[in-house]
Amino acid sequence: MISTKEIQIRDPFVVTAPAEGRYYLFGSTDANIWGPGTGFDMYVGENLESWEGPFPVFRPEPGFFAERNFWAPEVHLYRGRYYMLATFRRSDNNLLGTAVLAGDSLEGPYRLHSNGPVTPESWCCLDGTLFVDGEGLPWMVFCHEWQQVTDGEICAVRLTEDLQAAAGEPVVLFRASQAGWPTPFRSERYPGQDNYVTDGPFLYRAADGALLMLWASFIDNTYALGVSRSTNGSVLGPWEHEDEALFRSDGGHGMLFRTLDGRLMLTVHSPNKTPHERAFFLEVEERDGWLRLLEGRGE
């Protein structure tokens, strides 16, 4: 067994399996995610404190379209099969894109399902997440990278019902600067430029029917997580933004899951520096149409 504190992981994503009494932890697990990609590993545990693993769930087959930057895998059960959305840096144009992989079981193995990334070929995109609307139609919500557009965007695109391709043109839902809590991200590569980052969107349908979105950015160059809400319950919005960040202690790329005893839990990675990233689990509640931490490291 290995403890949560010992697992180097970014972009943690948890699937709860109540029938088994277990949690499945996925994430960016390469020791150096900024370099050549190995694949994705999974951990299995019963209490969010100790885990079995790592177990390999994805390794690229010969001819795979990417060799670097294997990021942010998340796993969804959709129409009886498991799908993994993950980001890779394409070898042909050196741009990031999110592709869809598929597996016959939660444990994988996962193999390429889409024809490469389903994000636009000429865009630098990352962190695609799956959302199924009230009509059962699949969407992918993703980030249009700030390094390409300066003011990072959260976008949505309809997917074909088999999740193999985009079924339309992407729509910009909002830009990072439209929220009140992020501040410009200062980068040595872009001196004097006001960059605004969008990162790691995740959608959640609240008990009152509200559609909420977690996403990450920076406050004074420190990684942080905020919440936005669709004013009409549709993925296309319009979207409004919580004034203050939900979590600002150098952590983000969050998602929500239910524990085996039914509590609503947020997981983020923190700190945001390789190789020190670890998964943190923080209990949250729905309050006044938003999310609130019950305790922990929000400040």
Features:
globular, Glycoside hydrolase family 43 protein, 299 residues, Tachylectin-2, Chain A, hydrolase, mainly beta
Q: What is the second-level CATH architecture? A: 5 Propeller
Average pLDDT, all residues? 96
CATH homology superfamily name: Glycosyl hydrolase domain, family 43
How many E strands?
21
Q: What is the CATH T-level topology?
A: Tachylectin-2, Chain A
CATH class: Mainly Beta
Cα-atom Rg, whole angstroms? 18 Å
Number of helices, where a helix is a run of at least 4 consecutive DSSP H or I residues: 1
Walk across the major sheet and give the strand order. 1-5-4-3-2
Distance between the termini: 31 Å
Please state roughly what percent of the residues sit in beta strands, choosing from under 5%, 5-15%, 15-25%, 25-35%, 35-45% or over 45%: over 45%
Structural class: mainly beta
The largest sheet, given as strand count, sense and whether it forms a barrel, is: 5 strands, antiparallel
Instruction: Report low-confidence residues grouped into runs of 5 or more.
Output: none
Number of domains as seen in the coordinates: 1
Helical content band: under 10%
Quick one: overall form? globular
Compact summary:
The protein is mainly β. It contains 1 helix and 21 strands.
Q: How are the secondary structure elements laid out?
A:
Blueprint lengths: L1 E2 L6 E8 L4 E7 L11 E6 L4 E9 L7 E13 L2 E10 L5 E8 L7 E2 L12 E8 L5 E7 L1 H4 L3 E6 L12 E5 L23 E7 L5 E9 L2 E9 L8 E3 L10 E7 L5 E7 L7 E10 L2 E4 L6
Antiparallel strand pairs: 1-5, 2-3, 3-4, 4-5, 6-7, 7-8, 8-9, 10-11, 11-12, 12-13, 14-15, 15-16, 16-17, 18-19, 19-20, 20-21
